[in-house]
Amino acid sequence: MNYLVHKEAAGFFAVEVKPDIYLIGCEVGENGGSWGRSMEFGSPTGNSWLIKGQETSVLIDSALPLPGFKAFAEKVAQTPVQLVLSHAHPDHIYRLKEFDEYWIHPDDEGLLRGEYGFNAYEGIPETIHYLKEGDVLDIGNGHVIHVYHVPGHTDGSVLLLDEKTKSLFASDTIARRLLYGLGTWIPLDRFIHDLQRIKSLDFESIYTCHDRTALSKKFIDFMIDSLKGLPEVQQRIELIGMEFIHLVSGNEKEETYFDFVVPAARREESIEALKRV
Fold this sequence. Notes:
Largest sheet: 6 strands, mixed
Strand content: 25-35%
Strand order of the largest sheet: 1-2-3-4-5-6
CATH topology: Metallo-beta-lactamase, Chain A
Structural class: alpha+beta
Radius of gyration: 18 Å
Shape: globular
Number of strands: 18
Distance between the termini: 37 Å
Oligomer: single chain
CATH superfamily: Ribonuclease Z/Hydroxyacylglutathione hydrolase-like
Number of helices: 5
C-alpha cells in the first residue's frame, strides 16, 4: 500500500493509514537517534496513533519526544484530542506534560510516580480519568472504541478496538517486541489465554507503538508459537540492571519477527506455565 504524508510540522509527520486513522511519527527519536520515515518493518521507532472523531479525537500514547506534540496532533485531528495511555512506560509518556488531562488504567498510575523502579514523571496533569476493561469511547463519525485490559507488559496495559475500521491498537502487548514481567507477575499461560481472547474479536489490523506497519491477526498465532519455544532458549541479556532470558524468532524486516525478554528469575515459572497451555 502507498501512504501519503497528510501533514508535517516541526519534525512531526502524520500518515493516514485508514480513513480517520493516522500514524503520528517523527524522524528523530530520543537522544537524537534516527527513526526516519520508512513505513516498512525494520528497527523500532516510536509512534502514536490518532482516531479522528466528530467533536473530539482519541490520541493513543505520547510516544514522540519532540515538544509541540499535542499541537501537532490537534492540527491533524482538527478537533481537541483525548490522550489515552496504553500504559505508562517512559517511552509512551514523553509529552504528557503538554496535556491538561489524560486517560489511563488505574493499575498503571503508579508507574508515573516511580513504581517498579521507574523514574517518577515530572509534570503529571492534575486531571486523570480511569479506563477499565469494558469501557467504551464513542467519539462520533462512527468510531466506537472498546477497551480491553491485558496485564503482563505492565499491570495496566490496555488495548483499544475501533469497530468502524476494525483496527486494534495493541501498543506493546501484541507486538513484535515484548518486555515482559517487570510488574505484577502474570503467568504466561494466563497471558496466552488473554491473547487468544483478543484474537477472537472482530478486527483486521493491529497497530503497535514501535512499528509503523500494521500486523495481521495471524501474528498472534506466531507470537504464541514463539513463546512456546521459550524452554529451549539459553540466551541471556542484561537490561536495566537485571538479567533476562532473550528469545528471538524470525527476521526483523518481516512481520514474522518476535523479540521477547522475561526476567531470568522467572524462567522456571514460565516453563511450568507453558506446560499448561
